[in-house]
């Protein structure tokens, strides 16, 4: 009886808190968009930071926050990057940061799920869904506990007010994300 | 006799004409690295927890493509190993050292194709020799033809993507990165500008 009551009211599930390891850059935000249907333009954001909370067995408590320095866009071509930073695309002076907040993780199968959240890019906030794969977790050789994920999603540029015409093949950009967090002993907030 | 000579002349003429026509069909492309419409990306596990993503920033190459005989296509790419870029300067320094690419000793990696087979849906298999870290080994790249046609600047372009995996030890890179990181995955994208 006591046991049932205890589990019904529930001991607070343990929520693990992680900082994304950008200091040693064990994370990446890559994008891929068609170039006229002939090739891909691949790029990344070089500077971002974030954290996530992970509650084993309680995916509803999972949460992710990532802030991206939009000026750090890097497609391995300085002139093009300048154009991508301009008002034609990211307008980085006006919108120096993009931000993703993941608020709902639903496990769809062992080791994978869907993260729903909101992305603010170029001043526009829209819901996005990220397909997630849980990569692994454990103690690293330096004694810390790490946990990592990869994710993919697609964004329609126009949804975020980016109207520049790149042709019919380049209306959407695909993102590949990987984050590795180092577990924190201190709790946020 | 006269007629026979005429026929054989005609035949010879046709043959050499068609040989000439076939030759003309071979399109030659320079990979558009100048405007970075080509990429060499890699991905390797970090302790099984996440991915280390990187690319080579400097490379160049060319390919030939014969739409009538795709199997005759050829590719050559030369990569500046020191241009490795994993978005972390200290790590890149380590990757350039003798523990990994040893770029002082092996400043270039090189891929030269040996054979190509393309299906009707544009998927293909490209085989060739990769020289990396001073070791030459056969590699197989799974390819997909992306598209081709005139570009807005009066040129004609053709592009492909490809994926392959390399076992680091096969190329003499023995540094222990743990059991999850024996192999590196490559994603390649090349767009060529047809040469006149």
Describe the fold and architecture:
The complex is a heterodimer of chains A (189) and B (196). Chain A is mostly beta strands. Helix content of chain A is 8%, strand content 53%. Chain A has 2 helices and 11 strands, in the order H-E-E-E-E-E-E-H-E-E-E-E-E. In chain A, strand 7 and strand 8 form a beta hairpin. The model of chain A is unreliable at 1-8 (pLDDT under 50). Chain B is α+β, with helices and mostly antiparallel strands. Chain B has 2 helices and 11 strands; from the N terminus they run H-E-E-E-E-E-E-H-E-E-E-E-E. Chain B has helices spanning 2-25, 89-96; strands at residues 27-31, 39-46, 50-56, 59-65, 74-80, 84-85, 108-118, 123-132, 135-150, 156-167, 183-194. In chain B, strands 1-4-5-7-8-9-10-11 form an 8-stranded antiparallel barrel. The model of chain B is unreliable at 5-22 (pLDDT under 50). Chains A and B meet through strand 2, strand 3, strand 9, strand 10 and strand 11 of A and strand 2, strand 3, strand 9, strand 10 and strand 11 of B.
The SSE order of chain B reads: HEEEEEEHEEEEE
For the residues shown, what is the average pLDDT of chain A?
92
Main β sheet profile of chain A: 8 strands, antiparallel, barrel
Reading the helices and strands of chain A in chain order gives HEEEEEEHEEEEE
Give the N-to-C terminal Cα separation of chain B. Answer: 43 Å
Radius of gyration of chain B: 21 Å
Overall spatial form of chain B: globular
In percent, how much strand structure appears in the residues of chain B?
Answer: over 45%
User: Overall mean pLDDT score of chain B?
Assistant: 91
Task: Give the fraction of residues assigned to helices of chain A.
Answer: under 10%
Radius of gyration of chain A: 19 Å
For the biggest β-sheet of chain B, the strand order reads 1-4-5-7-8-9-10-11
Q: How many strands in all of chain A?
A: 11
Structural class of chain A: mainly beta
Question: Going across the major beta sheet of chain A, what is the strand order?
Answer: 1-4-5-7-8-9-10-11
Given as residue ranges, the uncertain stretches of chain A (5+ residues, pLDDT < 50) are 1-8
Are there runs of chain B of 5+ residues with pLDDT below 50, and where? 5-22
Please count the helical segments of chain A: 2
Q: Which percent bin holds the helix content of chain B?
A: 10-25%
């Amino acid at each position: 009886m006591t046991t049932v009551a205890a589990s019904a009211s529930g001991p607070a599930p343990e929520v693990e808190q992680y900082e994304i390891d950008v200091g040693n850059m064990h994370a990446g935000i890559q994008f891929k968009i068609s170039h006229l249907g002939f090739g891909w333009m691949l790029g990344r954001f070089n500077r971002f930071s974030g954290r996530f909370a992970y509650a084993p067995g309680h995916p509803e408590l999972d949460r992710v926050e990532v802030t991206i320095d939009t000026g750090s866009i890097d497609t391995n071509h300085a002139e093009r990057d300048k154009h991508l930073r301009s008002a034609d695309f990211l307008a980085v002076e006006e919108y120096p940061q993009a931000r993703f907040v993941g608020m709902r993780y639903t496990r769809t199968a062992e080791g994978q799920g869907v993260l729903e959240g909101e992305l603010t890019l170029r001043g526009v906030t829209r819901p996005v869904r990220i397909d997630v794969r849980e990569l692994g977790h454990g103690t690293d050789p330096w004694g810390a506990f790490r946990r990592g994920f990869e994710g993919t999603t697609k964004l329609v540029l126009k949804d975020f007010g980016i109207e520049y015409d790149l042709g019919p093949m380049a209306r959407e950009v695909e993102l590949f994300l990987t984050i590795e967090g180092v577990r924190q002993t201190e709790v946020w907030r | 006799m006269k007629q026979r000579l005429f026929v054989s002349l005609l035949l010879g003429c046709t043959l050499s004409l068609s040989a000439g026509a076939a030759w003309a069909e071979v399109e030659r492309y320079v990979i558009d690295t100048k405007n970075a419409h080509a990429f060499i990306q890699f991905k390797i596990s970090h302790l099984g927890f996440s991915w280390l993503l990187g690319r080579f920033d400097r490379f160049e190459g060319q390919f030939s493509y014969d739409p009538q005989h795709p199997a005759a296509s050829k590719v050559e790419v030369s990569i500046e190993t020191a241009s490795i870029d994993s978005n972390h300067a200290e790590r890149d320094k380590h990757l350039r050292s003798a523990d990994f690419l040893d770029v002082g000793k092996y400043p270039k990696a090189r891929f030269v194709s040996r054979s190509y087979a393309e299906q009707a849906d544009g998927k293909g298999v490209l085989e060739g020799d990769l020289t990396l870290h001073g070791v030459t080994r056969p590699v197989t790249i799974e390819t997909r033809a992306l598209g081709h046609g005139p570009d807005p600047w009066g040129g004609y372009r053709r592009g492909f993507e490809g994926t392959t995996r390399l076992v680091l030890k096969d190329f003499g890179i023995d540094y222990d990165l743990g059991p999850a990181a024996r192999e590196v995955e490559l994603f390649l994208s090349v767009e060529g500008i047809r040469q006149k």
